[in-house]
Design goal:
The complex is a heterohexamer, with 3 copies of chain A and 3 copies of chain B. By secondary structure, chain A is of the alpha+beta class. Chain A has 2 helices and 5 strands. The complex binds adenosine-5'-diphosphate (3 copies).
């Protein structure tokens, strides 16, 4: 099993979710994070202009079986892309075990 | 009666009413930001601040004289329209003898009317929220508040032809609310719906407002403001009339809210606070045309029916794929028309003839509002466009037009 | 004096007071949602909207005539109670000659009193927040506002036996606030505490309110509303009396807040804003019974003691394992009683006899309030139950009763 | 004229104005918390609650008599200052015959003036937010509101030497706003900037306010409050004067907002809502000194220039490395001076001589404010210090001084 | 060392925390996430009904020594269970190193 | 590649970010979490005193190439330290793959 951590633009979330659905990935968790990266945003507050590299992003955590990794990554890669600096990153992290709380069962079946 | 004192007392009530109508702008602001998404909050507040400020200044230099002309040219266009603009100051020798009728002074009159004028534009502002270009909206609202609103107002309140025909609109169900509502309707039709409001199959989707407590506070503030809006429209502190008007106004509001809620509950088995809120506003707009003509029971009826109309109108707009985030068209146009017609159905003036006059008034004013809006919007669309870019809309208008100022800097938000 | 003008002026002040008392409902709404958790916000607002709306309509058709009857049957039950209900319209020939005393018109009287009636129910609403079933509460409050409140009111303000005995309650420390407070007390006793309010060992735990700025705004709005609540209770614009009342009211509020804060600071070495807020409200309720009878110094004393009482009452309720999220019982019952008794201790009416009459009044009204609440609540509990399911309470009432509407859709929340 | 009725009506207007000025404290509270960070919200609200409460009590026992003395000792110190303090109660035989002039009663006078006094301290409170020690600020504000404010007030409104010289300050551009503004300036100079406000290279950085809707609501509430602040300063309900004052006030506010926005837009191509807000306040403060002396056009000019001054003053403070989170110095001092001088430039009183007198008044009052603030602050700093620890400031003042109460318990926040 | 990531119902948080205490797990971090899964919730807003599979959940991140993994997982499994769809998941992820910032020390001891 | 998860005091965030910049770590994501640990905070609400071990903290997720791990960890260790209980933890977790969404490229280069 692998955990796929994707950091994407918020405005791309709906498209990414649809793309995931299309490849039968229905289960995941997400939350909002602040991303520090290449992209910068200009701000102005009471006459003080400032630019910030802190951008609101959405963090998706998706645990999938090994044979689903590529298809999931590719779905995100294409749906989350705008081509502009700041599109985000995807990381793949090993997962040793998974449990479904409702039933107590463990292993790859819990991800369906 | 002691005329100086009479003037003083009447004027006092009018000034208080003016203050209350001014305060409605906080109510509108709260309502509008509460029912929309946080990413457009600064933009909406900016619009409201602009409208109240520009509205007052504009009304001082153009609108007031246009609306209350000394006389009419061919009965439709006030002759000031082809004459002089600008607020004259009928100052006496001391520079301060400003009273000009028994009810109130020149200045009170101006300020009270000026607050009304700004209201009409604010109605539009709510409907077009979250996607309209700021500059285009400003242009539109300046034209509309500067010219159309006072022109229409002059037909009735300025002593024009509708007044002569016997059209009745006590505090402006039509002259203020429908005039705003028609423009809102046309504007959202031209603008199109917000991204995501309708699914690909055309089914309406919910875009929940981000701060319902603000919206609720807005409604209560508006209700309070209506004490001045209707109460001040008596144009004197006449104890019987003013207190009757406050009573009918409050009961219509209460009945509107209860009726809307009950009606929604029948369908959805659910207590829908936002519909309660819109129902109250519907009750208030409904009673505005005849607040001084209704008994308690009639006020409850007029308001209650208004509440149901709002619910139906919201559903109708959804079906027509018109997107009005705050329900401005349903409230101000839907029940504005209803309230005006109700004067011919309920209350002291009820009669078939009156109903017809009301209908004609509603129709002519509707034509004028729709026509002028259409012209303004078409021209503005040609020149600057009405709507922001797709990316700007997704990002939120606060980012693009307001230097990325965020309404709630310390809060962690969901964006959608 | 010019009688028409006198009526006009007095009526004007009463109408303004009415508007201010109406505005208190925003104050209550803000206070209640501010001191509770976000997951119940819609529910609380819905309750408040319902109460003000239903309260007014109900008062029009039942309460008003019950409270101010033409005469009494055996001195306790107003004869309208066994006679006709409904708001009569003493319209003159013109249909609009509505004045019926020197102070104000029939309509003003109705509206002013109607706003008061709704207040009593709102007090209950705060105490039972976050776990009470909506329908059951509505039933209770309709019975209470429709029957009990006006009946008790008739004993004093309607000219009933308490009035004859010399009981004094200027603006309703007892007739409004305690009447609400007693019902709140009984209701929370029957309801039980919110899940998590007391540890397994029975120790009180804090459930912090989710929006203290709203709560603070609520308090300031209530203070403002009290200008009308007490100021309007003069029932005329008498310059000396009204301005004295505003002064004692404001000083009592200020003293209540300072005393509560100082008292808490002694124990906890901490500046507790929520206690400052409750102290202000305690000062306001305390002065309400005798606002026209106190000097400046006495107002400060009465208010200050009221502030301390609130702090003690909050602690006492915690010890009794009664759970009142907003401190409604402490504020409205605790200082309502204190304020009523204070009329016999401080000010122009102070005397041992007066104190006894006050005590008797407090006792009888308490009995009536508690007794009727007990009956209503017991019956309602039997039929529908008073409390939502455990799961619904944990989820928040907005989910179960309001279609999952969230108060703050765009914000990321903690839930607890 | 009927004198009793005249008194009643005038007094009524003054009471309403008092209520509106009281309501400004909600406006200030909202503005201040809105423009600062959430971690200091409880602290700021606590300050505001304290000021309004302590301000009123203090004014009752000290300030009022100091400010309106029976006579003067050497023309500068009111003789009460060396005589008796405390609010006398000129009660008649009945204990309630409290009227003492044609315009309003003794009590109204006290309450109206008391609300003004608290305003001056609130101005300071905004500027020093997010780093000032609570106890030290309370000490300072009690001294300032208890002694300096009424002393300066006595020079003009109490009939002192500035009044004799012909200095004009209608509702307190200088006597209230600048007096508060000077103290704010000195206080922030002594306090130093918030951590993070200036980069190591000394460049100003933005610390965005956490709730702009609150701030916007605050501005609209303040605007409403100004109806009473300026309207009530007529000291009677004179229809011409009061309504002129409301008109000039509102137009100056509108013009101030538009001018500030336009000016900022020229530089930054950006619609800056916070500057619109400050511009409105600048317009209001500007017109306060001469609201009864200006024509419509002049009001627009005075307000508009005030709006531009605010923008420049904010930038100037940034350059001077003075940190004023809410722009209190820019608004209240900057345009307070401008508005006072404007009386000599525009309107009925405009003349070179008048301008000089205004300048002298501004100067002397500035000296007195700065001097006394300097002494108080220096002494307080020695004894307790003015500023909280670095760690406390980073944590937020709500943690250290208010038992870790959080303003928004259920919301997930960013802290910075 | 392992990192245990548990996604649970918010309403079960207090029970889970108590259960963790009972097995001597006193240290962890948590935050709120949106979970996309089987469970659906009905909503109604201004007359528009919609159902959403986005449910608010709480995400717990607990780093423990290897010998604590089972007891921790079991504690969560039993405390977080309601038996209804939507009880959540537990994932076990390898951790290579841990540091305590206060002292700078590293290794399994830092987890005590 | 490794993922460095650091849980720090919010008040130390600016210093940590500066320290990361100084060692050329410019890209990361962060969010706010509640930390349960040794540290306790006293609270008072309407006369009820309570102490809570739930403290607001900031969670940083930084994916770096293996040769950057030590320098990154050390930068955080020194910048986030106050010496008081509650300074937080750093965990190092293996990462198998990384992608840059903008370009679709994968591997260690995407972390620059
Ligand atoms: N090494 C990293 N570790 C964690 N998050 C990262 C890392 N690099 C980038 N990110 C996240 O990805 C987002 C986009 O990266 P950015 O450098 O702005 O654009 P791009 O990927 O197009 O070069 C950042 O805002 C940040 O949230
Ligand atoms: N593969 C996954 N990766 C990440 N989070 C998941 C995954 N599967 C489930 N979850 C989380 O667990 C929650 C509960 O899952 P759900 O499918 O609704 O119920 P159940 O586990 O009872 O079948 C989801 O809302 C989601 O937050
Ligand atoms: N085993 C753990 N798993 C996840 N987070 C932890 C763990 N231990 C500590 N933390 C986080 O680190 C923070 C600081 O830990 P704490 O025990 O308070 O201080 P210290 O590290 O100085 O002993 C906690 O609040 C928590 O967020």
């Amino acid at each position: 099993m692998k955990k796929i951590e994707a950091i994407i633009r918020k405005s791309k979330f709906d498209e990414v979710r649809d793309a995931l659905h299309d490849v039968n990935v229905y289960f995941f968790s997400y939350w909002d994070v602040t991303g520090v990266g290449h992209e910068k945003k200009e701000h102005l507050y009471r006459g003080v202009a400032y630019s910030s590299s802190d951008i609101q992003r959405r963090f998706l955590s998706i645990v999938v079986n090994d044979d689903f990794v590529d298809v999931t990554v590719n779905a995100i890669l294409s749906a989350a892309k705008t081509g502009e600096v700041g599109d985000g990153k995807i990381f793949v992290v090993p997962v040793e075990q998974a449990y479904r709380i409702r039933t107590g069962e463990s292993g790859g079946l819990t991800l369906k | 009666m002691d005329t100086t004192l009479t003037l003083t007392v009447n004027n006092l009530w009018m000034m208080i009413s003016t203050a209350l109508v001014f305060f409605m702008h906080l109510g509108f602001s709260f309502l509008e930001i509460g029912l929309t998404r946080q990413k457009n909050t600064i933009n909406i507040l900016f619009k409201n601040f602009f409208i109240i400020s520009m509205g007052l200044v504009l009304y001082a230099f153009v609108g007031f004289n246009l609306m209350y002309p000394a006389s009419f040219w061919n009965g439709i266009l006030p002759d000031y329209f082809v004459g002089l603009f600008g607020l004259e100051s009928p100052m006496g020798e001391t520079g301060l003898d400003l009273s000009y009728n028994e009810g109130y002074t020149y200045w009170t009159d101006f300020l009270f009317q000026g607050m009304f004028a700004a209201t009409a534009a604010t109605i539009v502002s709510g409907a077009i929220a979250e996607r309209a270009k700021l500059g285009s909206f400003f242009t539109f609202s300046m034209l509309y508040v500067g010219i159309v609103y006072p022109l229409i107002g002059s037909w009735k309140w300025g002593g024009g032809f509708l007044d002569e025909w016997g059209f009745y609109d006590f505090a402006g169900s039509t002259l203020v609310h429908s005039v705003g509502g028609w423009a809102a309707l046309l504007y959202i039709a031209k603008l199109g719906a917000r991204i995501g409001k309708f699914s690909k199959e055309g089914k309406p989707r919910a875009i929940p407002g981000h701060n319902i407590p603000f919206a609720a506070a807005g409604v209560l503030i508006l209700w309070l403001g209506w004490f001045g809006f209707n109460g001040g429209s008596v144009l004197s502190a006449d104890p019987g009339l003013t207190s009757l008007v406050l009573t009918t106004t409050s009961l219509a509001a209460a009945a509107g809210g209860l009726a809307a809620t009950g009606f929604v509950h029948l369908y959805y088995k659910n207590f829908d606070l936002t519909m309660f809120m819109n129902g109250i506003l519907g009750g208030l707009v409904s009673i505005t045309a005849g607040a001084d003509q209704m008994s308690v029971m009639e006020a409850v009826l007029v308001g209650g029916i208004g509440g149901v109309i709002v619910v139906l109108a919201v559903a109708l707009l959804d079906r027509l794929k018109l997107d009005d985030p705050v329900g401005a068209v349903a409230v101000h146009l839907g029940t504005g028309i209803w309230g005006t017609l109700a004067v011919g159905i309920f209350g002291n003036m009820a009669s078939w003839d009156q109903f017809l006059v009301q209908l004609i008034g509603v129709g002519l004013i509707g034509l004028m509002s729709v026509g002028s809006s259409w012209i303004f919007l078409t021209v503005i669309q040609k020149i600057w466009g009405l709507r922001v870019d797709r990316a700007e809309e997704l990002d939120g208008l606060d980012q693009a037009e307001h230097g990325g100022m965020t309404a709630y800097a310390d809060f962690r938000m969901n964006q959608h």
